[in-house]
Amino acid sequence: MLAGVPLAASAQTMPAATPAPASAPAAPVAAPVAATKVIKTLRVDGTQRIEPETALSYTKLRQGQAYTNETLDQAIKDLYASDLFADVTIAGADTGDIVIRVRENPIINRVILEGNKRLKEDKITKEIRLKPRQIFTRSAVRADVARIVELYRRQGRFAASVEPKMVSLDQNRVDVVFEITEGPKSKVRQINILGNEVFSDSKLRAQMATKEARFFRFLSSGTSYDQDRLAYDQQKLRQFYLTEGYADFRVTSAVAELTPDRKDFIITYVVEEGPRYKFGDVTVDSDIRDFDGKKLAATLPVKKGEWYNAKMVEDTVDNLSETAGLFGYAFTEVSPEFQRDRDALTMSINFHIGQAQRTYVERVDITGNTQTQDKVIRREVRLAEGDAFNSFQVKRSQDRINSLGYFQDKFEIKQTPGSAPDRVLLEANVEEKSTGELQLSAGFSSLERFIIQANITQNNFRGKGQTLRAGVNYSSYSKSIELGFTEPYVFDRNIALGVDIFRRDFNAFNFIGTDRNTTYSQVSTGFQVRTGVPLTEYWQLAGRYTFSYDEVGLDQATFFTNGACDRLKAGNYLCDALGNRLTSSVGYSLIFDSLNSRLRPTAGQRFTFSQDFAGLGGDVRYIRTRLEGSKFWGLGGGFVASLTGEGGYIHSLESSRGPGIDKIRITDRFYLGEPQFRGFDIRGVGPRVLRQYYTNDASGKQVLVTDRDQIVDDALGGRAYYLGKLELEIPLGAGARELGLRPSIYAQVGSLFNITRPLPTATFPTTTDAAGNTVVLPLPQRDTAGNPLFTYVNAGGLSVQTSCAAGIPDASGTCNGVVPNSPLIASQPFKETFLGNSAQPRVSVGIGVNWNSPFGPLRIDLAKALVTQPGDDKKLVTFNVGTQF
């Protein structure tokens, strides 16, 4: 194996440095040749694949021509330049019988890459020149080595090195091997800033996209050195200083130095801050007659005497352009004219609005849609052909098309000049994306344990904007199947119509220790018809009719005795919920929606007022009212703040169902807790009944169980609730965004309340022990006459039930004997406490992370309940994960 570097030691040097032929006789140099030399004979020796005539064609030597030593030297150079030969010598220079002896360059058999892990082989091979069946040259090897090193440098691996090797084979063939040492990714070890006096180094580093490598930035891609990012950071520094009033700021030099170990970079910026300026006179000069420059200047955010801010100037230009667009001037040019006073340190600005004509929409062009019909897009456009141009309506049209979810993000409507100066073309060039979703998922939830889901949805069915969906859900908490269809424009009218068919099997539960106990089950089967019509651009009225058949039952093995609901086991509140009933309700919603996106909003607000009236037939009668609202703010830098709130109340239209029984059934009430109210367990907020059983301590004294895991906790729901949340979504670096990480911090406040206090299930007899302590006794079983029941063992060894406390009854029923019988226990003694029926707020704070993990969407929340009420069930960590396949 012959090492490829260095190559200059061998005879196969580059043509630019022609070697002295080792076998050629030395040309006379001491004295000039007296007579002209002529080539008598000319031949080529040593060729194998190349014809001798081909080799001669690269030179100017011909038989019968005169030659000199310089002529022969040039021939050698020409042959080397052809890249066909590894060695060239010329003999017979003194006799005229010229013999050109050559050794051909070998043919490449294979090009082999070794050691490349970070760069795939196909990315390297398409960039290098050497290929199988090509002629091997050392210049091509050197060029490919440099190219591979450059590829790694683009990845930030400046310590990468490449060693080429050549393996000789028979028939003048070679294998070329590139041994690659990739090295670590070069990080930015340190960023130095020189010349800054006003702002600290840390303040300026915070403005840059490049970050110093630190252990806590392991997810950030900004710690890797990138030459292009170096220029970007200089611009970021300039933008920052310009927003702070330093109009003369400049970066005099930016140098990136590789550390001696070739692992990291040290970047040094030298800056000149200059003086700080304030705004001078701010005026507006308009060539458009409709605009009064003085009135416009009075409304500008830029004010004389404030510190100069270049970003505010840019925003003012945009605002003036948008203002002109609102009045129909589509192509208005607003030019800021600066007048700098270096002595007074002021920057006076005149915003010049150039002459423009009022424009009208000549045509709306829609391109790029191969599946979606034109009318689906065109009906979202707020401007029609012939309308006066309005920039606000263009922006609104853009937001509505984006909210459809049928096209790639960052869609924009472009404005181009039309056939006349007062005409404008609107071009909606869309790029469609898949709108069908087929999802099979399995996962584990802290709420529902194991989950299996299957959903198929087509949001743009037949390209008409229709939605068709079908879903199946199965978990230990709920089971459901749903089918739905929505037509957003019935008969091409702006009226939406949809229908849903469903069957939902829901199980309520509580925990005793780690055992999960189902309390009541609810099976709902029915359908819903929905419709909606816009009232204005932002207001919409929606209506619905729902019909459902609900079957509410209890686990008979646990809560039934002799075929009837046992109130001692289930409680009055659960036994009262049993039964089957029909619910027929009609409802409406009044909606205001100005969100810039329905999928992931960053600005705008949404408000919904809803009411449902149950009692249009059926067995249930109530009015349910709900109010929901949300507002989003884009704070810049990727930060998004949101404030959401909701509340509701159910008013019964039925007469009393008995003492201690709420008019609203337990299955129709509101519930609050995980996942809506983080920091609390599922149904962990609001009215509930806690059942504590009595036990004996180590001394034998009767005490109540206080361990929350051993207390029966039945959530009863409420007729009224409220819930609010303030949340801030925090942006991460590019690396974290690529992983799909979206963290947020939030605070929540809410409450659930207002139901009738249930009657106690039982009253237990008491007695006093020898120490004078009150002892609660078990509740005995009784016969139909109300007498306590006992058991005794008869002569045959069988247990017999009797009403005799002692002895054995005779044929007449008289108890004979004094031996006490064993009492039959209906229930061990317990204490029921009704808690949580309070409107006082509960408060929690937390941090959550959404992650599009390889296992599917994952949500983890760490929430702490700060303010609670007696009976509330807290929970610190919640998570939900699923796997898509």
Automatic annotation (TrEMBL):
Pfam families from the UniProt entry: Omp85, POTRA
Q: Which domain of life is it from?
A: Bacteria
Protein's GO biological process: Gram-negative-bacterium-type cell outer membrane assembly; protein insertion into membrane
* Keywords linked to the UniProt accession: Cell outer membrane, Membrane, Repeat, Signal, Transmembrane, Transmembrane beta strand
Please state where this protein is localized.
Answer: Cell outer membrane; Membrane
Q: Which residues form the POTRA domain?
A: 37-105, 106-183, 186-274, 359-433
A GO cellular component annotation here is: cell outer membrane
Database matches in InterPro entries: Bac_surfAg_D15, BamA/TamA_POTRA, D15-like, OM_assembly_BamA, POTRA
Family named by the database record:
Belongs to the BamA family.
Subunit text: Part of the Bam complex.
Main role? Part of the outer membrane protein assembly complex, which is involved in assembly and insertion of beta-barrel proteins into the outer membrane.
- Fetch the NCBIfam families from UniProt: OM_YaeT
The name under which this protein is listed is Outer membrane protein assembly factor BamA
Lineage, broadest ranks: Bacteria, Pseudomonadati, Pseudomonadota, Alphaproteobacteria, Sphingomonadales
